[in-house]
Amino acid sequence: MKIIYTDSLVVGAGLAGLRVAIASKERGLDTVVLSLIPAKRSHSAAAQGGMQASLGNTVKGMGDDEDVHFQDTVKGSDWGCDQDVARMFAHCAPKAVRELANWGVPWSRITAGDRQVVVNAEKVTITEAEKAHGLINARDFGGTKKWRTCYTADGTGHSLLYAVDNKAIEMDIPVHERIEALSLIHDGKRCHGVIARCLITGELRAYIGKATTIATGGYGRIYEVSTNAIICEGIGQALALDTGVAALGNMEAVQFHPTAIVPVGILTTEGCRGDGGLLRDKDGHRFMPDYEPEKKELASRDVVSRRMTEHMRKGKGVDSPYGPHLWLDITLLGRKHVETNLREVKEICENFLGIDPAKDWIPVRPTQHYSMGGIRINATGESPQLAGLFSVGEAACWDMHGFNRLGGNSLAETVVGGMIIGKYVADFCEKNTLEINTQVIDDTMSKLQGEIDELLVGEGTENVFDIKLAMQRIMMDYVGIFRNGPELEKAVSELKDLLKRSKNIGLKCKKRHANPELVEALRVPRMLRVALTVACGANARTESRGAHAREDYPQRNDKEWLNRTLSTWPDENALEPELHYEQLDVMKMELPPGYRGYGNDNAVAHPDTAAREAQIADILAKLGDDADRFDKQAAIMPFELPETLRPRNERLSDTSLVSGEK
């Protein structure tokens, strides 16, 4: 048995994982990163539109700060997020953007003077201040009051991933590629590392670390059509779930992006709409103002996706061999803008659709895109149930997104979360020794080896690819944008049947080394358990909140459901998770639950909301008129950060940005 020891073990080499690894290495800790693929091919590279940070450089971002970003994030989450975490995030986002610039990210920059932009389908001229010349630019994104999404054309994730990976290379951080973690090594109280399989040789290895960080991304590929890379199958979440100890949080919170191309489901960035693109129906009618007259195409993602689906249900979709779709029109932006700021979108349209988006409308419809749920962690990134187990990025439920993520907050979370949690990981490694009974390693290794042996020499008859496709179609059909009790019950029942069938998988290829069929056979039962946490959580939550939209329970019910779903798996023979709930304390919130700003305000109020609002008013009154926004925030809801991240952010003052529209 091969055992590899380290201080900080990171599973996943996307932006979040690499940023944690860098934080560990900066403290002189031995660090190892495991990855299914070469780091620069991680799914982080697919992020197009940008990263939110309240720099306030551009005229359209004037007056932006951490307070506004925090409020947008909380409202976007439909009050499902951890407000302490949202504060930590909003405070550190500008620091992360500037750090990335120092590491070589070529952020799109401001040019002083007049420039044309499209706002609400009209071309207007805005004037950028001379003092802002050369500073990092920002574009508009859905659900935000200010333009704060920093970008590098529409290849932001690509730029960030290359810069951060190059930094990791510079620091000599080893990335073990083509390695898949399949089991966590733990004793019920402390996580000690993982058992991983080499996808090339089939060798099983034990990686032992003081701290283990799961940064494997989301679980989009439990759905049939997703904007996610094919590696985003929820195995990181399954690692925690299979311990029977660590909990997953809010797994039913699954986001559908409004504008994935039909039929392949590849994303066209929210930057298309942020830059002024429009959504049209089969008649060419711009329909979003009919539903959301204020925010229109730039309502929050969950809202736009539902409005699009509602419009297609009315027969306003464009018929196609792949089902109805709608149109995304970016032709009004002009060819120069498309070829400069949306060049990846242009290439996707040319290569996959055979159209020129500078003159042709793009066929789009909502498609599974993001997982708000994940491994439940506290503000420091650690599992409350399993010491030494950390998580970050889309693999985690930190929980800054609640039940809906704002565009641009995901890419930001990878590096901001990695920056913050990375410091706590390093703290943990410095404060704790590495103590493990090797029998725990042997037992975990033997169990996984037995699973592999059974697949290779057993007499199973089930086809793993058939089971996987059936799972994906169940999730797509019954656990989608709109949900209801009968369909969710059907999903749970059929997924249980598939989980039973997965215990009888048979392989045609019996090789122990490079064997894609064996890889699928190991993954699919784990994916099914993850899918069941999503379906069971959705079935149990009898309300609508953010991306979780129940047609039979259309109200957001703060009175009964202002909580976080926690899922654990009882044992290896169980067919469904155990669900528990973690209450959100309104009396500790900086921003108590209120009207989100979309549609009718039909929320059922929490009994503590009025009391908390009165308490906040009293706190502010006692502070007096001389208190600044920092004093007010600290008095209402203080939050903690590592000392090096506490200093205030600096911005151009509003008075120095004298400009406007012409």
Automatic annotation (TrEMBL):
Domain spans labelled FAD-dependent oxidoreductase 2 FAD-binding: 7-411
Entry keyword set: Electron transport, FAD, Flavoprotein, Membrane, Oxidoreductase, Transport
Domain Fumarate reductase/succinate dehydrogenase flavoprotein-like C-terminal: 470-598
Keyword Metal-binding: no
Listed cofactors: FAD
E.C. number(s) listed in UniProt: 1.3.5.1
Catalysis: reaction(s): a quinone + succinate = fumarate + a quinol
PROSITE patterns documented for this protein: FRD_SDH_FAD_BINDING
Descriptive protein name: succinate dehydrogenase
Protein species of origin: Shewanella japonica
